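PT: before anyone asks, these are the final sequences, not the draft ones from last week. 218 residues across everything. Please model them as a single complex and drop the result in this thread when it's through.
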Amino acid sequence: MSVPQEVHKNVILLPQTNQLRGLYSIIRDQTTKRGDFVFYSDRIIRLLVEEGLNQLPVEEAIIKCHGGHPYKGAKFLGKICGVSIVRAGESMEMGLRDCCRSVRIGKILIQRDEETALPKLFYEKLPEDISERYVFLLDPMLATGGSAMMAVEVLLRRGVRPERIFFLNLLAAPEGIKNFQDKYPDVKIITGGIDDHLDEHKYIVPGLGDFGDRYYCI
Ligand code: PRP
Ligand code: URA
Ligand code: MG
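LR: through. Structure below.
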């Protein structure tokens, strides 16, 4: 079994298996059409959600199997919810719903200014009891880290504990990871890929372009 790699404190990189590299090769390819982009991104998203669930704490539970045979198992006792950073983060909601039946999902609308790449917060709608939950924060791209950090700020203002936030992310730039970790060292980042750097427009290199456009529009 391949084990996720801890790259920095609280940065968990999915195992770079041949399968995962194959999936990324499809979504990174600039000639890939939207249907395949969505299908293969969804497969990666599912892996990220599964790894997020792996990170949650459990308590030992003794289960009675057929004939009363005991099995030493595990039970997750906490409550979780998802929070997507709109728009691109919404692409990750279905992967979470597929694993967690009737999971609550909040939304935070943050958009990067196209000229300055600085994030702007427009809207937030979160479960009332979010401070009692583990939160899977969903956004496929971590470039400068500005959007994700702004979203974490919103969650902390609502009383969520930093160690209960898991940021699920398809692709990260080292600059973004550093900014994010310097500010929020206790928030876990679970990512499928860490790229080389940001270009002059603050896009990830080699990256995959604009995730939201490729998933929803192009
Ligand atoms: C993208 C992406 C992240 C953000 C990452 O969203 O989905 O939210 O940029 O960049 P950062 O780390 O430098 O903040 P964008 O604002 O382009 O909106 P979209 O979701 O509508 O594509
Ligand atoms: N947003 C994207 O969709 N891609 C990037 O490379 C950076 C921000
Ligand atoms: Mg966004």
